[in-house]
Amino acid sequence: MKPEHNFARTGNLEDPVKTNSATDRSASTNISRRSAMAALGAVTTVGVLAVPGRAEAAGPPRGRKSPTSQLSPEEVVRAWNDAYVKHDVQGCLAYMSDDFQRIGDSTLWVPQNKQLTEYTWTQFFAAFPDWTWDMTSLNTIGNLVVCEFTERGTWTKPYNILPGVTLQPTNTSFVDHDADFFTVKNGLITEIRAYITNNFQRIYGLGTVCAPKIP
Question: What digits encode the pLDDT tens for the residues 44-63?
Answer without folding.
Answer: 444 444 454 444 444 454 54
